[in-house]
Amino acid sequence: MKRWLRQHRYALAIAVRRLLAQPFSSLSNLLAIALALSVPIVGTAILLAAQPVAREVSVSPEITLFMKRDAPTDAVNDINSKLRNEFSDDVVDTRIVTRQQAYKTLQRNPNWADALSVLPENPLPDSIVVTLAESANLASRADTLVKTWREWSSVDLVQHDSAWVQRLEALLRFVRIGLGLLALGVALVVLATVFNTVRMQALAQREEIAVARLVGATESFVRRPFLYLGALIGLLASLVAIGLSALALSPLNAALAQLARSYGSQLALQLPNGASLALATLAVVILGAISALWSVNRNTRF
């Protein structure tokens, strides 16, 4: 066990020494990977901030049922009771708006007052405003309810603009897919950068590796420092990326706070939680080690 630990400690020391031996090149590689990593981190922060806003926007979608003009006087009350009893899982609240209430509301609007004054009678129907319960598939569920309620004999029109819900869901889905593709692109950047770094190190240490093999060094002993070098690059780049992302969120939050105040709201971007960042860092470290293993296997065959 002590021998195993001593070998790994030696490999880590060699990796650190090789990383410090070329500071400009190492710093350039670290910054390249860190900048690539910071983009999905900031994107994830924006997505996490947008999701609560989306839930608040879509928390109380409404559907309006307009009654037929010749419907019985008690039809609106019957349908209101039917909505509350038979659709209790989908409906949070219902509100009856009589034709007289709607007419008085329009009369108070100066844009409609003149037009209504020339009409011989109230042209507005009774209506029921239905507030739907929030659900994961809100848009599709709302469309199903609209189709069902349109079939009722006393209902003349069911008004529901589900396009905004669908657009919102599509936008968030697009952002998630975009972040996934971006993360894949970042993984390729990590692989390519670490591969090239280890390749240059292997070529620079060509004679040292040849001598080590002549005196009986095993392949694992020769390649282990390069694996630590790849993992170390991934770790340091991840830490730098988190720091750059935190710095980038500061001016973004200042601009966002001003925009949110104009809408009477509060919104702030925050980094993903520590567990998510730790998991992402571990993934980058593993990618770095894999890339280093691939590179050293290809470039130390001499």
From TrEMBL:
Subcellular localization(s) per the UniProt record: Cell inner membrane; Cell membrane
InterPro entries: ABC3_permease_C (IPR003838), FtsX (IPR004513), FtsX_ECD (IPR040690)
UniProt entry tagged with the keyword Transmembrane: yes
Topological category with respect to the lipid bilayer: Multi-pass membrane protein
UniProt keyword annotations, A-Z: Cell cycle, Cell division, Cell inner membrane, Cell membrane, Membrane, Transmembrane, Transmembrane helix
Keyword DNA-binding on entry: no
PANTHER family noted in UniProt: CELL DIVISION PROTEIN FTSX (PTHR47755:SF1)
Family: Belongs to the ABC-4 integral membrane protein family. FtsX subfamily.
Record-annotated ABC3 transporter permease C-terminal domain positions: 181-298
Protein name, as recorded: Cell division protein FtsX
Transmembrane segments: 31-50, 174-195, 226-256, 277-296
Role description: Part of the ABC transporter FtsEX involved in cellular division.
Domain FtsX extracellular: 62-156
Domain of life: Bacteria
